[in-house]
Amino acid sequence: MNFNRQIELLSPAKNADYGIAAINCGADAVYIGAPKFGARAAAGNSLEDISKLIKYAHKYRVKVYSALNTILFDNEISEAVKIINRLYEEGIDAIIFQDMALLEVELPPVALHASTQTHNYQTERINFLDRQNIQRIILARELSLEEIKNIKKETKCELEYFIHGALCVCFSGQCYLSNEIGGRSANRGECAQPCRLSYNLLDSSGNIIVKDKHLLSLKDLNLSTHLYELISAGISSFKIEGRLKDLAYVKNITAYYRRKLDEILENMPDYKKSSTGKSEIKFEPDPDITFNRGFTTYFFNGRKENISSMDSPKSKGKFIGKVIKTSDDFFVIDTEVQLSNGDGLYIFKDETEICGMYINKSEKNKVFKDISIKIPEGAEVYRNLDSAFMKAINRNDEQRKIAADIVISGIEKGIKIKLEFQEAFENSFVYESEFEVQMETASNPEKMKETIIKQFSKSGDSVFEIENVKLEMSEIYFLKVSAINEIRRNFINLAEEELIKTHPFERRIKTGNDVLYFEKKIKYNGNVVNRLSEKFYKNHGVESISKGPEISGSDANIALMTCKYCIKNELNICPKDKNSKEIKLNEPHFLENEYGKFQLKFDCSKCEMQVIKT
Fold first, then answer.
1. What is the DSSP string of 106-122?
2. How far apart are CA 570 and CA 307, in angstroms?
3. What is the SS3 assignment for 337?
4. Is 8 helix (H, G, I), strand (E, B) or coil?
């Protein structure tokens, strides 16, 4: 067993305010886009914004990681290095990177995390990265529990794994479809999400097998029932996807997983959360309420379930019941759910979207409608906007406090104040400061003592919740309440500053090595688009390197997507599955929509599917 291991809940931060909200709801770490070169180009942040987040986070021992995880052109590398240096100066805890050029340049000793965009799926590649003296590898979402266990046995660095949120249908870092159809490269942070579009599935003769379905759109990941297994398998960081999601999603999902992890860690004394402070929230977290396309565990326990959301890429919300009565003016839902004006409903029948609507008037489970669309009996009703929940979560009254004790003792010219609290694994934070006071003995020592304890028990909007105040003074001095309050405020501010100053950092020391890469040839999907990345691989024994399509363009017949997801399996026509439908379809198959026609190639030996440029 790994003793004294810290477990981290890692939440997304679209900006500093989102990151602060995630921290208040229980995040142990947050990840935020760098000013440029992040995998979500629309989620870049200024250095000032990131600095604001860092200062807030470090008071709670919460870490802040900056995503600079796109591939870089030659003329961008120097700017990327400057950004990393500035982030290091501001106190960033780690840089999430994709481009191997960053392993060739001189960087400050900031920790490096290999993004999932570096395609951390093959054991050989993960082992290679593990030997490059980086601090963490973010594993591919497609890995199963057993594969994670095997990887952990062979690696030394920390392992991070996604536990919740949107899923890319393609292996991360291996998707070129967006770049092909619109010039927006996923590896440059500009993915246009063609996987969420509708397609026709054709056979070799052009016959339509499936019409106008979102054949590449996946449900969202939810591994909330598998956290114990992941901890036991060796995962250190539990990542929530969603740097482009709204604030309610970030708060709701963070609070939900904080509660789940805390329940598990209570019974695992050798494991602790990696930050300090306890979150207090006044809403009931529920992943079904905020954005989701329905949930899947993906390939966590193998290929066992339907994982696509072919009917719609939109958020369905939470299923609340079926329509049992309908008329031109209203419909009745078989539900115990309390409906409210302002709720949003999403209605389906036979896996086909009927409509979306807001409730303007309702009586218990009876909804009056002001749209002309007929709502059929038996239709499934989902609530994708819960107005009461949103009202509760948008109050922004969640807070996070560190339980601490204060001891006040007498010194020659005044008092000495000590604040102390326990961090992970019996470590204690202690801060002491001395203050001069008038040495006038109190006429009523007991009353003065009560006043001092009462005033020092207050912590206001600081990070502390003072649980105990102890006086160790042979003589009680008279102090005005205003003087006590001023001393307390100054002391608390100094203690918070000390928290920031003493925040623990993990540092990386660059060391050269001659570890050979596991392949002699790197193709276009190695994502090499600059000279330094090319130099890196050649230094590690690679003999032939093809440039990425962002530089060289894409040839016919290349794989624009490589997926563990398989349309055949999803449609229950997998030739390897004995329980599949026995339907003979003329191959090859094609996907087609307004943006083009793409061949599907199936490698049944690997259980993988490719979308091929024709």
1. ---SBEEEE-GGGTTTS
2. 7
3. coil
4. strand
Which pLDDT score is estimated for 371? 85
| DSSP per-residue codes, 242-275 | -TTS-HHHHHHHHHHHHHHHHHHHTT-TTEEESS
What local confidence, expressed as pLDDT, does residue 3 receive?
A: 54
Q: Within a 10 A sphere around the Cβ of 313, how many other Cβ atoms?
A: 18
SS3 of 185-250: the string is CHHHCCCCCHHHCCEEEECCCCCEEEEEECCCCECEEECCCCHHHHHHHCCCEEEECCCCCCHHHH
Cis amide prior to 504 (ω within 30 degrees):
no
Q: How many CB atoms lie within 10 A of CB 257?
A: 26
Tell whether pTM > 0.85: yes
Q: Which domains, and CATH codes, for the chain?
A: 5-167+219-276 (3.20.20.380), 316-393 (2.40.30), 403-422+427-501 (no CATH)
pLDDT digit string, tens, across residues 285-329: 999 999 999 999 999 999 977 999 999 999 989 999 999 999 999
Q: How far is it, in rounded angstroms, from Cα 32 to Cα 55?
A: 14
Distance CA 222, CA 164 (A): 5
d(CA 116, CA 114): 7
pLDDT value at residue 404: 98
Token output for 330: 């209203």
- Predicted local distance difference test score (pLDDT) of residue 159: 98
- 231, two tokens: 């901890």
In degrees rounded to 5, what are phi and psi of residue 34?
-70, 170
**E strand or H helix that includes residue 608:** strand 608-613
* Helix pair 445-456, 481-501: axis angle to 10 deg: 40
Residue 73 has pLDDT above 70, yes or no: yes
pLDDT tens digits, 360-375: 999 999 999 988 899 9
How confident is the model over 205-224, as pLDDT tens digits?
999 999 999 999 999 999 99
pLDDT at 433 over 90: yes
Query: Is the CB of residue 55 less than 8 Å from the CB of residue 92?
Result: no
Residue of 20, 3, 2 whose CA lies nearest to 11: 20
Q: Please say if the pLDDT value at position 426 is more than 80.
A: no
Chain mean position to CA 171: 17
Pick the closest to residue 16 from 40, 49, 58 (CA basis): 49
Is pLDDT above 80 for 126? yes
User: What integer pLDDT is reported at residue 578 of this predicted model?
Assistant: 73
